[in-house]
Structures are given as structure tokens and as C-alpha cells.
């Protein structure tokens, strides 16, 4: 699967990603409702919640808000979730007007346990105890077979998707789940973005290519949903390590 049109050195790739991440640091593409939906998909389709075995890892997490949402939805009580939902505003993507509530009880990378929710991000500006600063295609060796659920909407940003897939399989437990979500942009939009000075680094992912790539790299597709979203399409899928 080809992700980038231009050939970049690994160093240049890191620099570009970090610069883009900084530019959009307060932006979060994920809402409380998204995470609730994915939890329901896991619960209704695969009985995951009853037999649920964490921990959860969010890959390419930018400012880390999605980690807070996964922790709230999977591990906090109903009252906290009502508050997180009510306090959410649509500004810079999805954000909270009182982040203290959803930011409570962060996990620690030093002690990853069943109900930990952690993340990985290249941008060193995200200073949180639950975020590993580094590349998601080179994670700590001790994380092998650790996580029950991986979440990412950043796979399309991989420098080398084969290397990323191999690494994600390595840290996922047997039978673990990978929740994938992303916006599929039409070619025209990504072409325009590439030629623009303000480029957001948009890429067009072919869903067929993605699914066949995922299958050939040790995952089975359990659920996929494609919905129209203005001129784009929202794609979400749940894959299982087979
Ligand atoms: C499209 S943004 C998504 C951010 C966040 N998940 C959200 O929904 O708002 C991609 C993020 O992934 C990070 N990223 C890109 N490549 C990465 C890599 N190899 N390892 C870790 N993070 C990476 C970027 O720095 C950026 O913050």
C-alpha cells in the first residue's frame, strides 16, 4: 500500500509530522459519541466488554484527548460520562470546555495494567504521564503482546505502513482488537491539499487496499462502516489479530 507520493527520509518525515501536529495541536478529531459508538460495536458484535481485557493504546494521539475519552467511556461511571458529554464543544474538532473532568485518573506508562489507557505520539509537546513520545512503528520492546485494544485514526500518516502494521501486531495480544477510524478524502481534495502552502498532509486511502493490506498483515476484518460526510466519507472498522 502506498501512503505518501513523495519520498521522504525518516528524519524529514518526523519533522513534517511534528510541525503539522504543532500547528493543529488543540484539534481533536474524536468525540465522546465516537468512542461510545466503538465501545457499542465491540460490545454488541463481539462480546468484548464482558470478556474485555485491556489495556488500550491510542496511536498518533496528538494532544491526547482521545485517551481521556477512551478512559471515560470504558472505565468511568455513568455520571462522569454524562458530564464529559455535556461539557463537549465543537471547536477545533471536538474539545471540552472543562477538561479537568475528562482528564481525571490518567494512567501511567510506568505501570501498564488491565485498565490502563495510554497513547503514542511523535510530537514531544504532549507532556502527559500516559503518552509515550516516539514513533508508533518503534515502540518499547517490553510492550510485546500487551494491549487488548488499539485505536488509531493516524495509520494513513505512517512513514512505512508495513513497518507500522508489524509493530501494531506485535504489541497487540492474540485475539486483540484494532479500532480504525478515518476520513476518506476524494483524490481531488488531497491533490489540492498537497499543492497548498497550508497543507494538512491529507492522503486518500483506498479502503479495498487498506482491507487487503490489513488482512495480509495478520488481521481479520470484523466490522466496517462507510458513511457519507459532505464530499468525504467516514470510514470505521474493527479488525482482530488472528
Ligand atoms: C491526523 S493526526 C490525528 C490526531 C488525533 N488522533 C486526533 O484524532 O485528533 C495524526 C497524529 O499522529 C502523529 N503521528 C504521525 N506519525 C506518527 C508516528 N509514526 N508515530 C507516532 N505519532 C505519529 C502526528 O504527529 C499527529 O499528531
Small-molecule binders here are: S-adenosylmethionine
Fourth-tier CATH superfamily name: Vaccinia Virus protein VP39
Unreliable stretches: none
Note the total helix count: 8
Q: What is the count of distinct domains?
A: 1
Q: Residue share in helices?
A: 25-40%
Q: How far is it from the N-terminal to the C-terminal residue, by CA? A: 20 Å
Please state the structural category: alpha/beta
What's the order of the H and E elements? HHEHHEEHEEEHEHHEE
What Rg do the Cα atoms give? 17 Å
**Which fold name fills CATH's third level, the topology?**
Rossmann fold
Explain briefly what this protein structure is.
The protein has helices at 10-23, 32-46, 65-75, 78-86, 99-102, 161-171, 187-195, 207-216; strands spanning 56-59, 88-89, 95-96, 117-121, 131-133, 147-152, 172-184, 219-229, 232-241. By secondary structure, it is α/β, with parallel strands linked by helices. The protein has a single domain (10-241), classed as Vaccinia Virus protein VP39 (Rossmann fold, 3-Layer(aba) Sandwich), CATH 3.40.50.
Account of the 3D structure:
The protein is of the alpha/beta class and 242 residues long. The chain has a single domain, classed as Rossmann fold (3-Layer(aba) Sandwich). The chain is 34% helix and 23% strand. The protein has eight helices and nine strands. The protein has helices at 10-23, 32-46, 65-75, 78-86, 99-102, 161-171, 187-195, 207-216; strands at 56-59, 88-89, 95-96, 117-121, 131-133, 147-152, 172-184, 219-229, 232-241. A seven-stranded mixed beta sheet has the order 5-4-1-6-7-9-8, sandwiched between helices. The chain has a two-stranded antiparallel sheet with strand order 2-3. Helix 2 (32-46) crosses helix 3. The longest helix is centred in the first third of the chain and has 15 residues, at 32-46. The protein is globular and about 45 Å long. The model has no long low-confidence stretch (mean pLDDT 89).
Amino acid at each position: 500500500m502506498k501512503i505518501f507520493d513523495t519520498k521522504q527520509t525518516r528524519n524529514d518525515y518526523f519533522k513534517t509530522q511534528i510541525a503539522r501536529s504543532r500547528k493543529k495541536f488543540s484539534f481533536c478529531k474524536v468525540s465522546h459519541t465516537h468512542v461510545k459508538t466503538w465501545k457499542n460495536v465491540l460490545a454488541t458484535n463481539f462480546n468484548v466488554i464482558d470478556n474485555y481485557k485491556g489495556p488500550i493504546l491510542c496511536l498518533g494521539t496528538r494532544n491526547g484527548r482521545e485517551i481521556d475519552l477512551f478512559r471515560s467511556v470504558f472505565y468511568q461511571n455513568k455520571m462522569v460520562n454524562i458530564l464529559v458529554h455535556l461539557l463537549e464543544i465543537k471547536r477545533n474538532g471536538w474539545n471540552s470546555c472543562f477538561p479537568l473532568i475528562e482528564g481525571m485518573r490518567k494512567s501511567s506508562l510506568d505501570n501498564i495494567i488491565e485498565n490502563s489507557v495510554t497513547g503514542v505520539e511523535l510530537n514531544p509537546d504532549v507532556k502527559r504521564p500516559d503518552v509515550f513520545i516516539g514513533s508508533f512503528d518503534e515502540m518499547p520492546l517490553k510492550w510485546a503482546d500487551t494491549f487488548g485494544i488499539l485505536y488509531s485514526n493516524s495509520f494513513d500518516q505512517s512513514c512505512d505502513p508495513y513497518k507500522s502494521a508489524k509493530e501494531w501486531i506485535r504489541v497487540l495480544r492474540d485475539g486483540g482488537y484494532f479500532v480504525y477510524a478515518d476520513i476518506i478524502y476524494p483524490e481531488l481534495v488531497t491533490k489540492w491539499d498537497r499543492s497548498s502552502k497550508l497543507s494538512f498532509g491529507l492522503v486518500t486511502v483506498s479502503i479495498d487496499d487498506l482491507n487487503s493490506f490489513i488482512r495480509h498483515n495478520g488481521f481479520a476484518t470484523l466490522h466496517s462502516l462507510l458513511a457519507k460526510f459532505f464530499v468525504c466519507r467516514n470510514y470505521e472498522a474493527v479488525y482482530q489479530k488472528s
